[in-house]
């Protein structure tokens, strides 16, 4: 009887899902709504011709119907899914009202959520569903009789421009999943650091990559990777085998990226060896572009006092650094990072660290060092960020990585720089941008050429994300959120 009731419930859910899509599509076609790009929202046009926000009875009800789709399924109680949570946050004023592109993406996330709830047992998502004895038995048979067991549910790969809400939407989806599931949400940089650390641990094993894939899939069948971006040749060369093994073990991937799958690791070294991974990714994930024209990070209110523009401002940053640490006395410190490495901190106190740009971005440091740094510090003061170009391209890459890690940790950046975030990256362009630049003519002498122009696809695409994040990190909203997190942790 229980099986019959579940089947009936699933049929009703599917019918309701189709109906809701039809309602939404018909409303957009009949122009009950207009897009206000200045606010980044979809607004209902009222009958008196005015545009109002937070008054969407038809549109909101069509989304709110999803509350009944997956509240109970397979005997698992849930909170309704990402679309319901999105609606709640809009109603409480936590989010701007319905960006059509975000709502379309949320429908994909809701679809995936519903499928995972329905097929949780087949996907082996619940870590408490089977006994240790059964797990050991499966492990033994998998070694004796290797076989592929891809998940019955495809994952999701979300890509789009900076500030369109990819990370927020993925986090919203992840937070709605049952706590008992084998799931992990992690930044891609951090994920790959973890992979390399595991490979080092299993060095000498016949196939360490297979062992690492087995460990990862045993811990987390559902992997949510934020900011999927491949720039390192070592990462590129192992991704295909790693994810083929993970998918074969039943892993399900949800990822966000600024790049479409076909554009990952574009023009990278030995890219031909990376191409099979793209095919595997597209085979095991539904690919969806978020096409919003709004950068939500730039809708925040500006805050003065954490980003200073000019040269030779060391005295200024030291003064503000001392204000942040209060009565504490800054002293040199050492931070341990992965694989036994250590990072020297010139001055640190009260959760704040002070570096010159050269000390943090002009030395052979990487994401592992930066993640290690923010395990101990919540604020970094960085003195002397230069204008980037061909002469300091490597330092620019490190700065981009540093900003990513700061943002991922919701940490705080106090810095002095030679220009605004946009000006810092004016000399960094993609190959496509370079091709559209005006060629030299008889009226343009070589003196007018910019010899510091850096043509680099990965850096050129990453710069928009960095500019956007630097803008948000200096906003009142971000700094207030940082203060709340820090206060709750102390």
Q: What is the overall number of helices?
A: 18
Strand element count? 18
| Structural class designation | alpha/beta
Q: Give the strand order of the largest sheet, numbering strands 1, 2, ... along the chain.
A: 11-16-15-14-13-12
Distance between the ends: 52 Å
Which sheet architecture does the biggest sheet show? Answer: 6 strands, mixed
Strand content: 15-25%
Report the average pLDDT across residues. Answer: 78
Instruction: Tell me the overall shape.
Output: globular
User: Rg, please?
Assistant: 25 Å
Are there runs of 5+ residues with pLDDT below 50, and where?
Answer: 1-6, 8-74, 131-139
Residue share in helices? 40-55%
GO molecular function: ATP binding; ATP hydrolysis activity
Keywords: ATP-binding, Nucleotide-binding
Pfam families: AFG1_ATPase
Organism: Anisodus tanguticus
What does this structure look like?
- The strands form five sheets. A six-stranded mixed sheet has the order 11-16-15-14-13-12.
- The protein is built from 18 helices and 18 strands.
- The chain is 45% helix and 17% strand.
- InterPro entries: ATPase_AFG1-like, P-loop_NTPase.
- One of its GO terms (molecular function) is ATP hydrolysis activity.
- This is AFG1-like ATPase.
Using brief descriptors, characterize the structure shown.
single chain, 490 residues, alpha/beta, 6-stranded mixed sheet, 5-stranded parallel sheet, 17% strand, disordered N terminus
């Amino acid at each position: 009887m229980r099986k019959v009731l579940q089947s009936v419930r699933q049929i009703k859910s599917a019918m309701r899902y189709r109906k809701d899509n039809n309602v939404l599509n018909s409303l957009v076609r009949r122009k009950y709504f207009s897009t206000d790009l200045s606010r980044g929202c979809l607004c209902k046009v009222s009958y008196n011709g005015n545009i109002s926000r937070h008054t969407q009875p038809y549109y909101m009800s069509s989304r709110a119907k999803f509350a009944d789709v997956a509240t109970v399924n397979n005997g698992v109680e849930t909170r309704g899914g990402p679309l319901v949570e999105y609606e709640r946050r809009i109603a409480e004023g936590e989010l701007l009202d319905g960006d059509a592109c975000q709502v379309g993406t949320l429908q994909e996330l809701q679809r995936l959520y519903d499928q995972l709830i329905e097929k949780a047992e087949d996907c082996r998502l619940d870590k408490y569903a089977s006994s240790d004895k059964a797990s050991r038995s499966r492990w033994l048979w998998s070694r004796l009789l290797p076989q592929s067991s891809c998940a019955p549910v495809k994952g999701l790969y979300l890509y789009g421009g900076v500030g369109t809400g990819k990370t927020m939407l993925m986090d919203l989806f992840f937070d709605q999943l049952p706590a008992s599931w084998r799931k992990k949400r992690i930044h891609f940089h951090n994920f790959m650091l973890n992979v390399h650390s595991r490979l080092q641990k299993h060095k000498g094993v016949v196939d360490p990559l297979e062992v690492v894939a087995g460990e990862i899939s045993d811990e987390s069948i559902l992997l949510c990777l934020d900011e999927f971006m491949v720039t390192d040749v070592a990462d590129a060369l192992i991704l295909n085998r790693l994810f083929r093994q993970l998918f074969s073990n039943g892993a399900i991937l949800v990822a966000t990226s600024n790049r479409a799958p076909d554009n990952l690791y574009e023009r990278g070294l030995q890219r031909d060896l990376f191409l099979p991974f793209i095919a595997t990714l597209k085979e095991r994930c539904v690919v969806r572009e978020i096409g919003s024209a709004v950068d939500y990070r730039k809708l925040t209110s500006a805050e003065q006092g954490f980003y200073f523009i000019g040269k030779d401002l060391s005295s200024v940053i030291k003064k503000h650094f001392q204000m942040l640490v209060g009565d504490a006395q800054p002293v040199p410190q050492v931070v341990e990072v992965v694989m036994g490495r250590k990072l020297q901190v010139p001055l640190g106190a009260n959760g704040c660290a002070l570096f010159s740009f050269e000390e943090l971005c002009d030395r052979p440091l990487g994401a592992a060092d930066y993640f290690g740094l923010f395990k101990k510090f919540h604020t970094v003061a960085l003195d002397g960020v230069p204008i980037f170009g061909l002469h300091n391209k490597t330092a620019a890459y490190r700065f981009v990585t540093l900003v990513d890690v700061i943002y991922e940790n919701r940490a705080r950046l106090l810095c002095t720089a030679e220009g605004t975030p946009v000006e810092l990256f004016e000399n960094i362009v993609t190959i496509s941008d370079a091709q559209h630049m005006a060629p030299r003519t008889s009226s343009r002498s070589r003196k007018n050429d910019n010899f510091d122009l850096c043509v680099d696809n990965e850096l050129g695409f990453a710069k928009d994300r960095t500019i956007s994040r630097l803008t948000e990190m200096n906003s009142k909203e971000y700094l207030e959120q940082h203060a709340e997190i820090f206060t709750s942790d102390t």
